[in-house]
Design a protein that fits this description.
The chain is α/β, with parallel strands linked by helices. Helix content is 28%, strand content 31%. The strands form two sheets. It has a seven-stranded mixed sheet with strand order 7-6-5-8-9-11-10, sandwiched between helices. It has a four-stranded antiparallel sheet with strand order 1-2-3-4, covered by helices on one side. α2 runs parallel beside α4 and α3 crosses α4.
Length: 230
């Protein structure tokens, strides 16, 4: 979810505005880019997908070398960069993406964002799960080799209060339970969080580390990585 201040040179055009169970979501076009706004808060745009791609690449690189056809859960469809990047990688086996906003799903299935995600959504490995990520992690019995989560601006800057529970002790315990042995948890954040790194360690994860994506101004986007032991 890159910062929005790079795009002041172009005025935005609202393409769609929806009221959903979690509030208002808006799709805007600014120049050649799309932006998603939730409850008046800038979430993400299509200007720079480096950190969303890193979310997928870093998780795959952290898996054991002999893991075949690993299953990945992408938490948050967003503008589709993470999903598209996962589907472009033949080493992934099953690819599930959880998205709770029906508007965002619609924008990908038959709207402007299809230009990013159409090939990924047509991939037979891909399944869209229209549900809340926190609820899904708590209630499903499915297991994955990697959880790549990007549902807001990170553990220290949540867009909705419900998302905050993902980063809590109980939320991280749910994440750990959903991982296969030696599985990887990768969490996107708009800024580094030493407190979240400690929370991962407290939750029983090992190999906790943070990879940064430098930005032109301000703090870097980061991906927090942690492993479930075997």
């Amino acid at each position: 979810m890159p910062t929005a201040d790079r795009h002041t040179a172009h005025s935005s055009v609202t393409l769609d505005r929806r009221e959903g169970p979690y509030g208002e979501v808006v799709l805007r076009e600014r120049g050649d880019d799309f932006e998603i706004i939730a409850n008046g808060c800038f979430l993400m745009d299509t200007a720079d997908g480096r950190s969303e791609r890193l979310l997928i690449d870093a998780a795959l690189a952290a898996l054991p070398a002999g893991r075949t056809d690993p299953a990945v859960l992408v938490g948050g469809l967003g503008v589709g960069f993470s999903l598209a990047h996962a589907a472009a990688e033949p080493r992934w086996g099953r690819i599930a993406v959880v998205e709770r906003e029906q508007a965002i799903i619609d924008w990908h299935l038959d709207g402007p964002l299809a230009r990013i995600s159409a090939a990924a959504l047509a991939d037979p490995r891909t399944a869209i799960l229209s549900t809340d990520l926190v609820t899904y992690l708590r209630t499903t019995t499915d297991r994955y080799d990697a959880l790549c989560l990007d549902i807001d601006n990170g553990p220290d800057w949540t867009v909705t209060e419900d998302n905050g529970s993902l980063y809590s002790a109980s939320g991280l315990a749910d994440c750990r339970e959903r991982l296969n042995p030696d599985g990887v948890l990768a969490v996107w954040s708009a800024q580094p969080s030493a407190a979240f790194e400690q929370a991962l360690k407290n939750a029983g994860f090992i190999g906790v580390r943070t990879e940064e994506v430098r930005v032109a101004r301000g703090v870097p986007d980061v991906v927090h990585l942690a492993l479930r032991d075997g």
